[in-house]
Design goal:
This protein is α+β, with helices and mostly antiparallel strands. Helix content is 36%, strand content 40%.
């Protein structure tokens, strides 16, 4: 089960803003642990507007991420009682995208604010689209 871990620009900025080397080291350790997805302990699935995302914590710091899984069919040739046989199996590929890293103070509010802002933008785009289609 190969897993790739990607760090978004926002998360990378949060990581570079960490001044404490101990906390920075802990965060890097969590990022390395995510390479073992889905066998990672300490992950909490989020709910509500953040459904489909997860968080991990170390002390007062939080990591928010999402996981995309792709399933691939792989055929293998095996010997069964001296005869060649084709066996098919499924292999999961995971992409873990680290979206946000930061201190718990303001972390949830910032995540909620970012989510509300994107909803507002999408709402205004829909409003503009419906206004232009209504005028035709």
């Amino acid at each position: 089960m190969p897993t790739e871990v990607d760090v978004s620009p926002d998360a990378r900025q949060g990581l570079t803003e960490l001044k404490n080397r101990v906390i920075s080291g802990r965060i890097h350790k969590l990022l390395r642990r995510l390479k073992n997805w889905p066998n990672v302990s300490g992950c909490k699935p989020l709910s509500g507007d953040l459904a489909g995302k997860y968080r991990m914590r170390t002390g007062d710091y939080r990591l928010q991420f999402r996981v995309e899984t792709k399933v691939e069919q792989v055929e293998e040739k095996q010997l069964d009682k001296g005869k060649a046989a084709k066996m098919a199996r499924q292999v999961e590929h995971h992409l873990v995208t680290e979206e946000k890293i930061g201190h718990r103070d303001g972390f949830v509010r910032q995540v909620a604010h970012d989510d509300a802002s994107s909803k507002k933008e999408r709402g205004s785009e829909r409003l503009c689209a419906s206004s232009s289609s209504a005028s035709h």
